Amino acid sequence: MNILQNIHAIDVHAFSWCMARKHRIGLARISRAVSFSADGPLYGVIAVLLWIFEYQALASVMLLGFLLERALYLILKRGFKRNRPEDALDNFKSFIVPSDQFSFPSGHTSGAFFVAYCLTEVFPDVGLYLYVWATQVGLSRIFLGVHFPTDTVMGALLGSGCAALMIGVLM
């Protein structure tokens, strides 16, 4: 249990550093838009467009992969029950109201990295842009005050891992 306490202490320190940035309010405004882009409906639109433009295999990977990713995400959220920064830290208020109670892992980050990985597999020329976007999604969740840094790191690993698995199985 000591290792988890040490990780949490480092996480709180890194989170506090982010929250102490001079332009934190401006970063939070930008972060709202970036975070909104990963809310989920966009992913459905992407899957439909892939299907329409004859990328049925990739659309299937995205549909089945999201089912796997969301299942694992929910198991981890309910298993770890890590409090969000607002609940874990004294005198801290996040910029937005999160969609659920627990922090670990970041679902927005997981979804963004899942999409980035899947689309890069078929469209490698846009991979850099997709991963920059996915990384910005993870950072936005920290700057909005709803996730600690390790929540987003684990979200990125979860999304990428699920995408790699589904692509390996279905493509």
Automatic annotation (TrEMBL):
Keyword annotations of the record: Cell membrane, Hydrolase, Membrane, Transmembrane, Transmembrane helix
Positions of transmembrane segments: 30-52, 58-76, 111-132, 152-170
Main location: membrane
Subcellular location: Cell membrane
Domain named Phosphatidic acid phosphatase type 2/haloperoxidase: residues: 57-167
Annotated membrane topology: Multi-pass membrane protein
Pfam families associated with the record: PAP2
A cellular component annotation (GO) from this entry: plasma membrane
A single MF term (Gene Ontology): undecaprenyl-diphosphatase activity
Protein name: undecaprenyl-diphosphate phosphatase
